[in-house]
Design goal:
The protein is mainly β and about 425 residues long. It contains 2 helices and 27 strands. A hairpin with a 2-residue loop joins strand 20 and strand 21. The longest helix is centred in the last third of the chain and has 42 residues.
């Protein structure tokens, strides 16, 4: 949990705007609760908000490759521009952090409800976190907020992870407490809970993941019997370009995370959201299990000869926002892969379990895999090119059957010879 910044007294801000920031400890996705109390000229609260946020940005490098950068508003945070609004300007909540990054949201209301309107986010690729960025300088994205309307004089609460994706940026929000247009300067005691929280059995329940400890050679055997992790459910995923499917994927997914303690995590396709992008030479499949785990598969096309093209899995990125076994959350990726290599226009298939190495502490296991990220025809898979494991199995099966038949023929022949000899012996005796 984030702790409140140990300031001796509230900050005095221009335009009588007060902002308190509660920032937490280290980690890829740090605890970074931001608490905001915006006051008007009479020192009455007009906007109150406390939330967790993080940003995942894909950027192009000087080598024309793509990498991911994570931004957290955890250091060097300022708060210029937050205002209660007036007859001509909407109320605005704004923060600035890091090396030239900023985020803001304004609010609108009707006679009965209020809601967020426009979110603006500026990130500066001159920051050191964007290593070898091809484009340097500030980049701004603007997107409409997805928060539903909330009754006036009501506090909006949502612990569930919400994400907004625009262009190559993913904005993550969770543990949100918010009230805009606060009446009489007093934050309401009435709550409005988001639908995602209502559908969750309990805040600590991970509805769509199965976790269990892994026993390794270097780890002592458990003193109690634990239920083994079952094979993950097989999910069918697809992306559309207009009304046509442009990417197809079928697989069971399991994460192998070795932080403080090794853990296996099964991804449940029934509660996994699918997004991504299709292209002629690059495609991305993004799976969000809605419990703060995000998996990105990036595919690319290569030319193997003048008239031959193949596709392959080039990059995998994993974002674990919620901690596992009390360890720090993480964001990790491998952009130097060259697996699932298949002729363009075909699909890749591997029924055997495969392991994709992301880092030494993070692997992805796939089961009953079939993937086609390019040139999908008639909304269905093209002819599959099988992995070596399946090909070897398919090759060995007819050999085994043939050997069995051959052995049976030899037995029949031996029985026949023995029978003939006995018959001859009987004739000679007579």
């Amino acid at each position: 949990m984030a702790t409140r910044s140990p300031w001796p007294r509230p900050l005095s801000l221009p335009c009588c705007c007060l902002l308190l920031l509660a920032l937490g400890g280290p980690g890829f996705f740090q605890s970074h609760a931001v608490e905001v109390d915006v006051k008007d000229l009479s020192n009455n609260t007009c906007i109150y908000a406390k939330w967790m946020m993080s940003f995942l940005i894909k950027y192009e490098t000087n080598n024309s490759e793509y990498k991911n950068a994570t931004l957290n508003p955890s250091t060097n945070v300022t708060h210029d521009g937050s205002t209660c609004g007036n007859n001509t300007h909407a109320p605005l909540l704004a923060i600035q952090f890091g090396a030239g990054h900023s985020w803001s949201i304004n609010f609108t209301k009707t006679n009965e409800t209020y809601q967020g309107n426009i979110i603006s986010f500026t990130y500066n690729t001159s920051d050191a976190v964007f290593k070898d960025a091809k484009t340097k300088g500030p980049i701004t994205i603007v997107v409409k907020d997805t928060m539903p309307p909330v009754q006036l004089n009501t506090v909006y609460k949502c612990h569930h992870l919400d994400s907004i994706e625009v262009a190559n940026v993913s904005l993550f929000f969770w543990d949100v407490i918010l009230q805009a247009f606060v009446q009489n300067g007093t934050v309401s005691k009435n709550d409005s809970t988001c639908e995602a929280d209502k559908s969750t059995v309990a805040p600590t329940t991970v509805a769509n993941l199965t976790t269990a400890p892994i026993t390794t050679a270097s780890s002592p055997l458990p003193t109690t019997t634990s239920k083994p992790v079952e094979k993950p459910l097989i999910g069918n995923y697809s992306l559309k370009d207009g009304d046509k499917i442009c990417l197809l994927a079928t697989m069971g997914l399991q994460l192998n995370v070795s932080q403080e303690k090794p853990v296996l995590i099964n991804i449940n396709p029934k509660t996994t959201n699918v997004t991504g992008s299709c292209g002629n030479t690059s495609a991305t499949l993004r799976l969000n299990d809605s419990n703060r785990r995000l998996i990105d598969f990036t595919f690319a096309v290569k030319n193997t000869s003048a008239n031959t093209q193949r596709f392959y899995l080039k990059e995998v990125n994993i974002t674990l926002i919620s901690s596992i076994n009390g360890s720090e959350p993480l964001n990790a990726g491998n952009n130097n892969l060259s697996i699932w290599d298949t002729f363009l226009g075909s699909s890749y298939m591997c029924q055997k379990e495969q392991t994709v190495l992301v880092t030494e502490d993070l692997q992805v296991h796939t089961f009953d895999l079939r993937i086609q990220p390019f040139r999908v025809q008639n909304n269905k898979y093209s002819k599959a090119e099988e992995c070596f494991a399946d090909s070897d199995l398919n090759f060995l099966i007819p050999i085994a059957v043939g050997m069995a038949l051959g052995f049976l023929i030899i037995l029949v022949f031996i029985s026949y010879v023995i029978g003939r000899r006995k018959s001859r012996t009987g004739y000679q005796s007579v």
